Amino acid sequence: MSLSAAGGLGAAGCSRVPDDGKVLGGSLLDTLRKQGSVKIGIASEPPFGYVGDDGQATGEAPAIARVVFKRLGIDDVEPVPVDFGALIPGLKARQFDVVSAGMYINPVRCEQVLFADPDYLMLDSFIVRKGNPHGIRTYDDVKKKGLKLASGKAYAQIDYAKAAGIKDVLVLPDQVAGLDAVAQGRVDAFAGTRITVKSAVESSGRVSATEPFQPVVDGAPAYGAGGFAFRQSEKNFRDAFNGELLKLKKDDYRELLRIVGPFGFVRADMTDLTAKELCG
To answer: What is the spatial distance between Cα 34 and Cα 97, in angstroms, rounded to a whole number?
Structure first.
């Protein structure tokens, strides 16, 4: 689906659009309820968010979005696919109403958007040649052994690698391109999340996934916790969404796991971390 115009996505009525970066209450939720639909920005990254064969948004984040938005009185969820690196710019440009792509929450992004609390916490993993001939387990291994590393466009793993002293990281479009690069010997490993790496290698006889591990930056854990992003002018919208998300986490995440389980998420991927904690 092509990027759609931003018509109807601003503040209701003739209200002036808030200055970029100014946190206000916002009335977008009321507008969306009246029109009965919401546009979600997604990137083509299974299993977090992507467009299925039927043209509908699918994956972990869109599945959560459908449940939450229905409870908020919005029945229709329309996907707007863009490159991952265009998600925040597209949100700020009002090309869609919310980022629904499992985006990692970090202080840099928190300066640009409002995040709901994370709906998952993910470890990292590498795509390597079958049998992991170089014995790669962490970013430090890649650095110490002088190996070639790749990762995806705008992936947090690029920063993790650089923090470990890896200066040159080959940036590729996604994990599928990463798999090919490893299989062809152009790189020794491709860094991604546990779940994207696992799904990429499942049907390949040429590569395998390393054991998941916790990245460390400057001696502290770098938490890969992802969530939904909203414009800074729409705090009311974020808060309403967050309230429904927290209800899904009750009873040991039972309802949330029913929604995200079909996409490979398990109890160990659930988290009680908050956006405030992750934003620092």
So the answer is: 14
DSSP assignment of 214-243 equals --EETTEE--EEEEEEE-TT-HHHHHHHHH
* Tokens at 13, concatenated: 């009525």
Provide the sign of the torsion angle of the four alpha carbons 193, 195, 198, 202, taken in this order.
Answer: negative
DSSP 89-125: HHHHTTSSSEEEEEEEP-HHHHTTSEEPPPSEEE-EE
Please tell me whether the peptide bond between 221 and the residue prior to it is cis, using omega within 30 degrees of 0.
no
Going from the C-alpha of 94 to that of each of 56, 70, 254, the distances in angstroms are 20, 21, 34
Strand order in the sheet with 149-152: 169-172, 149-152, 189-193, 124-129, 207-209
Q: Going by C-beta distance under 8 Å and a sequence separation of 6 or more, which residues neighbour residue 38? A: 32, 65, 69, 74, 76, 77, 78, 97, 98
Q: What is the pLDDT of residue 22?
A: 64
Contact present, 165 and 159 (Cβ < 8 Å): no
62: nearest Cα among 262, 274, 278, 225? 262
- pLDDT surpassing 50 at residue 55: yes
Q: Who's near 80: CB < 8 A, 6+ residues apart?
A: 1, 3, 4, 39, 40, 41, 42, 90, 95, 96
Task: Read off the pLDDT of residues 85-134 as tens digits, 9 standing for 90 and up.
Answer: 899 999 999 999 999 999 999 999 999 999 999 999 999 999 999 999 99
| pLDDT tens-place string over residues 212-254 | 999 999 999 999 999 999 999 999 999 999 999 999 999 999 9
Is the separation of the CB atoms in 65 and 77 below 8 Å?
Answer: yes
